[in-house]
Write a structure and sequence with these properties.
Largest sheet: 10 strands, mixed
Order of helices and strands: EHHEHEEHEEHEHEEEHEEEHHEHEE
Bound molecules: adenosine-5'-diphosphate, N-acetyl-L-glutamyl 5-phosphate
CATH topology: Carbamate kinase
Number of helices: 10
Strand content: 25-35%
Number of domains: 1
Helix content: 25-40%
CATH class: Alpha Beta
Length: 267
Amino acid sequence: MNYVVIKCGGSVFDALPESFYENIVKLHENGEWQPIIVHGGGPLIGSFLEKLGVETTFVNGLRVTTNEVLDIVEMALSGLMNKQIVRKLMTSGGSGYGISGVDGALLRAVPTSEAASLGYVGEVESVNTEIINQIINQGFIPVISPLGIDKVGQRYNINADMAASSIAQALGAKLCFISDISGIYVEKDGKKVTLHQIGKQRIEELIKDNVIQGGMVPKVQSALKALAHNVPEVSIVNGLEVDGLIQFMNGRAVGTRITLDKETRYV
Ligand SMILES: Nc1ncnc2c1ncn2[C@@H]1O[C@H](COP(=O)(O)OP(=O)(O)O)[C@@H](O)[C@H]1O
Ligand SMILES: CC(=O)N[C@@H](CCC(=O)OP(=O)(O)O)C(=O)O
């Protein structure tokens, strides 16, 4: 089976055109590729927290997660966001099956090494691919929310890029990050340009120079980890680009392709 993990960022979710879901359904129907959706929902969590008057902070793109924040993360992601995507697939003629990383311990998690400052933020220790394959064998497109659980039943908030990367690693899947930008951009001759391709070394320099920041940091780190562990291809694609996902699936140049080698190409 050829798997593709499509990570759908909260940044672009509200603006995604219907054709985005139609393309995923078409891909599924063609039968050559099995799509698996992993979604985020950072802005939705942010708006819930704001309404409830709970302050939120980020360290290196990761949300500091107290027990109170964890409840809201679970409601927003495993509730509203997850089911919204299932419904959108359905209205596009497909069938999605929503599941959280907590269910069946799909995402077995451990706290990050920075638990003292991040709280209940988790890292994926293992992925139960059997559950994913059972959902697939029933003819569904899995839709996974990025919460995890440890061996004693403690929940964790997992960055959705990291969750997608771990799932892609476990399945040997291609990985596509759908976001609100056309890829990684840098300043060149006073202008913002999007990179066509970028390698590990340049990514590390750009993080150090603060050119890659915020939510882009866990995204590129997750991409590099995926490439080092069984994932053949990773790209960042703008969800608003018509047929961007289809172009990625057809191996055409779209967004920014991330590689482990040194090459950097400008669009
Ligand atoms: N060098 C960079 N190139 C592109 N985007 C960047 C860069 N540095 C930081 N970003 C930010 O990363 C954001 C995408 O990450 P994030 O907000 O976590 O999106 P998503 O919800 O899609 O995962 C962009 O909207 C942009 O503001
Ligand atoms: C630990 C951590 O930061 N978790 C994220 C989970 C959602 C997410 O990653 O959503 P996006 O893909 O839209 O950014 C958060 O709480 O925002």
